[in-house]
Design a protein that fits this description.
The protein is α+β, with helices and mostly antiparallel strands. It has 14 helices and 7 strands. Helix 2 packs antiparallel against helix 8. Bound molecules: iron/sulfur cluster.
Length: 362
């Protein structure tokens, strides 16, 4: 092994975090951790991972689980397609691979939700096979180590980084080395103000020697954020509230929600809510009472969500006719925690759970 490889491994041995999936390197646990870590901070991922493993200790338990339960456990992690793909893959693994992940890169790649990165992560971290790995942390290290002057996401730059990651990988040490690189990027070669003084590879780092660490990596133009306003309403009827289940495709598929939607030009939140209720359920709601306003983000959107209680005129008992959902239920407020909701509605629910007195009693 080269001196550079030795220094990276020695640093990891001393500084690597004690993460639950690092205890046994069980392939199933490595797979779930890698999927959870996509788009999620480490601390949050660890909490979700532990809850997940308490409920789904093996692939078979996911293969037979209901989507409702899986989504509920995933609630708050976002990007729900990841959870659905885990379920789909678990069923394939149960049917064709005896409930185990195959130690085969191409077979892994054929599973739903497993791309080049995740397949390489499973092969190297779970099976210790010589597969290089490049995530955002490792990209940043290479961009600085080689002082790359082109955007890291460009095809050519990516090819260069993957090639260098392969060249640097010590034979037979992929499990530790790939994790060491990711950890180095997460803890030392961080995006802002990298901690070069304690970096084990600073003497090899071109950006450091040139004083250019702040300018590397070069990122693409950030995607523009879109600000939108939405309104949602909790329809109350004799101590129960209306929730509806979104359709099985599109954004937040199969999650539950309160009816509502986006404000159209010139509309107040109240006008939008009445219109959305009519369009989505054919119910003409009235007596709007403001509950709160919550802010949340998804993909490129920053959403301001205006939240109301509403009711049907004259204590009406009409049932909704669904146009944008697949199912509805009248539930007790205390039952809200049984269902998986998207982020904005979950914030509203948390607010209500701290203020249960806000609900009508009958
Ligand atoms: S010296 Fe600094 S910039 Fe270079 S790899 Fe280490 S932490 Fe990153």
């Amino acid at each position: 092994m080269t001196d550079l490889q030795n220094r990276i491994l020695a640093w990891f041995q001393k500084n690597g975090r004690d993460l639950p999936w690092r205890k046994t390197y069980d392939p199933y646990q490595v797979w779930i951790s890698e999927i959870m870590l996509q788009q999620t901070q480490m601390d949050r991922a660890v909490d979700y991972f532990n809850s997940w493993m308490r409920r789904f200790s093996d692939i078979e338990s996911i293969a037979v689980a209901s989507e409702e339960e899986v989504l509920k456990l995933w609630e708050g992690l976002g990007y729900y397609a990841r959870a659905r793909n885990i379920m789909k893959s678990a069923r394939v693994l149960q049917d064709k691979f005896n409930g185990l992940l195959p130690a085969d890169y191409d077979l892994l790649l054929s599973l739903p939700g497993i791309g080049k990165y995740t397949a390489a992560a499973i092969m190297s971290i779970a099976f210790n096979s010589d597969y290089p790995l490049v995530d955002a942390n490792i990209e940043r290290i290479f961009a600085r180590l080689f002082n790359l002057k082109k955007p890291v996401k460009e095809k050519e730059t990516q090819a260069f980084i993957w090639q260098k990651a392969g060249e640097l990988l010590p034979h037979g040490k992929a499990r530790l080395f790939n994790q060491a690189m990711m950890e180095l990027g997460a803890l030392v070669c961080i995006a802002k103000n990298p901690r070069c003084k304690i970096c084990p590879i600073s003497k090899n780092c071109r950006a450091f020697s040139l004083g250019l660490t702040g300018e590397r990596p070069i990122l693409q133009e950030p995607v523009k954020t879109i600000f939108i306003e939405m309104a949602t309403g909790i329809l109350q009827r004799q101590g129960r509230i209306l929730i509806q289940k979104r359709k099985a495709n599109g954004v937040w598929a199969n999650l539950w929600e309160f009816p509502g939607g986006r404000l159209e030009p010139g509309e107040t939140p109240e006008m939008a809510l009445v219109r959305e209720y009519l369009e989505e359920t054919q119910l003409a709601v009235s007596d709007l009472i403001k509950i709160t306003t919550v802010q949340h983000s998804y993909t490129i959107y920053r959403v301001t969500l205006h939240c109301y209680f509403c009711s049907l005129p004259n204590n009406g008992r009409q049932e909704p006719v669904l146009h944008t959902a697949q199912e509805y239920r009248w539930i007790k407020p205390a039952e809200l925690s049984k269902y998986a909701f998207p982020a904005g509605h979950r914030k509203l629910i948390r607010h209500l759970q701290n203020n249960m007195n806000l609900f009508q009693e009958t």
